Amino acid sequence: MSDLPLVFRSLRVTYGELVALEGLTISVRPGEIYGLIGANGAGKSSAIKTVVGLVPAASGKVEIYGHDVLSDGITARQLTGYVPETSFLYDALTPREFLEFVASIRGLDSGTVSRRLSEFAVALQIERELDQAISTLSNGTRQKAMLIGALLHQPPLLLLDEPFNSLDPRAVRIMKDVLAAYVADGKRAVLFSTHTMEVAERLCQRIGILDRGQLRGEGTLDQLRRQVGQEQATLEDIFLALTTDRGELSRLVSMLGQHGP
Amino acid sequence: MKWGERWRVARTLYRELSFQSIYALKSGNTFLRERKDVDPGDRAERRILQSKITVCVLFGLTALASAALVSEGRYYIPTALTPMYFDATIFALSLVVIFSLVWITGLQVALPFLSSQALTALRALPIEEEDLEGISALAFLHLFDLPLTTAFVLFPVAIFLATGSALAALASLPAIAATEVFALSLSLVTAGFFARTVSGSTGGSLRNLLARWTFLILWTVPSLAITIFIVFSVQILGTLGQWELAQPGSLALLFGVFPFPFAWVIASAAIPTTAPPAYMALWTVALGAYSVLLILAGEWLLTAPLRLGRTVAAVAPSPPRSWRLRTTSPTVAVLAKDLRIASRTPAYAFLLLLPLLDAFVLGLFTYLGNPNPAMADRYASAAVTVAVLLSAFFGPVFFATEVMGFSLTRTLPLTQRTLMMGKSALITIVYIIAFLLVALLVASRIHDFPIFLLFGSAELPAIVAAALLEMGILVWRAEKTGVPLTSLYSGAWWVTMVSVPGLLVAGTPLIAFHFYPSVPLMAVLAIGLLVPVAVLTLRGANRTL
Questions:
Q1: Fewest Cβ atoms nearer than 10 Å: which of A190, B173, B260, B301?
Q2: How does DSSP assign B379-409, residue by residue?
Q3: What is the mean pLDDT of residues B295-301?
């Protein structure tokens, strides 16, 4: 078994004629929070969905601790916890029933998951909604239920697709602290995608910048700064430098300004 | 906005509703990976059309049965009813079947329609409220158009063929219109009530639990009405005749209740007859009252789809009952999840309850109406057969619960084997409970009860085999293209296609018993079917979907 929590090897993902990812090769190391950033349609969600088996790879390989996600799907799923961009849940169930289902499928014991539920539910302030139908919950509360479902079995690898989109500021802060503590043992790892540069800059040890399906840059913040040749650059500066033509950007901003009210 | 423009927008809304209904992407389903050269919207509309045609076939069979009963029944069915009462009762029963079929279709369609985000998207556009109402009503009616039109054409034709009276055929048109409008209105009323008060309820209290199950049982009433028409129409005609002989005039009161006043008009047009003036006055008043109700319901139907679409279930948060999470084996977890979903989703609860209620009604009929042990044996066996057929037929729809949260399920370490076993366990449990209900009711009526128990038990392996076969086909299909079914209505075509092999497997021991009544032979056949099916479907099914 490999020590590397996650490895993408020349991954190519297509939707018909559209190439969503081309030759993606990255690895996520133990004890690391790895951030995938990119514009809409850059391929962030496709990369994560390939890991959990929701999207098939046209070519290339994805391995979780050395297990091929395609040929050894069950092991790969046992080693991961996944929070999708949109929280698709069983609307007729309550969060408690949903978590019981997830815990049972994962073969977890009642005592352990009950303890974890009480910790997470109080921290994320979802305790008063535990016995309400999911159909009646807000997007943020659904997202919290998904997060708890992904964390119940304390997986070695967490996959989070835009996990903070619907969360309130308090829950975002708590989740950032939880994720930092989660990888502190130096064994577990987190891969997450986001649009929010500030979150990625503060939370991630390494960052991969995707643009139209291709990896434009990868490394720590300092390594990325060196790559663009700007020592004081923010992640936003780096992202724009690697993915956008400055002249084109100025032209678009100017054009939109002319059409303003 | 003119009606033509409203229709154009309604067509777009209908296309979106069809798409949502077939692909269920918002519920977490993955997009069906099918032929690339066919537009998904066109394919969704075609699937809905196939389902409509399936419902139309049911209408056709009902019309045929009604025509046969009217033209030939009076020569074979012993009853004291006068020709007018006889024909009117058959017409009324036919209208009850139309009403029930539209209501069943409505319960499958109305809730997804009301919860559709398509209506919300329309409301955000600069369209007048009156136009929005018209568009919503047109889109809602569009979902039923072919079945409603078929009933409108087939029943008058059937009545004309059976009675030879064009006037009777014409007189049936307002009767069918009233039946359809009342059934559609009831679908919307019940769906709106469900969305408002029941869907957010999760069984936290006994009151919630009772309210939910009472409501879900109420939704099986129309399907029971169809069973009663199919199985008991001859007995109903006989009983009504005896009733009239014992208490003259009692039928006159019954004929004041919908749909009898409309049926009376059709029968009177076919067979000119007279009745006491008091009766005629009563029926005329009833007819007038129902006509007024028809106009009011029709007007309500034009505005209700949009208004009810705003319904939101409001539930106040409350402190948690406990922190305890109860975990089970994966197979039991799949079963428990499906039971929970079914108990809160009318379209699925209906499928769970129908075999049970049908078995109960048939068992009760055996208990009440057949003291002759030989007849009781036959009726009890028929009740078990109905339970077998219904559990095997509706099995595939239970698979459709996987549509909800499908993208989540696929990220869990859930094997195909666990999924198939959980679903098959549910179907088997439905059969076992249905059989036990019948056994309980007929215990004192049939002459060889232990043999009857063995008969029901011998069928059990065939039920498991049928369930596994259906699930195996659906898992194979889901692995290739995604989960295909969403509801009995939108997935009627698939249900029928996948159920055929299941019904063949479940039915083989019963057919063998019919020709050679031997329980051991039945058991051997059933086990002989189960073994290869289990090997075929479960071997190597340790992958995820």
A1: B173
A2: HHHHHHHHHHHHHHHHHHHHHGGGGTTHHHH
A3: 93
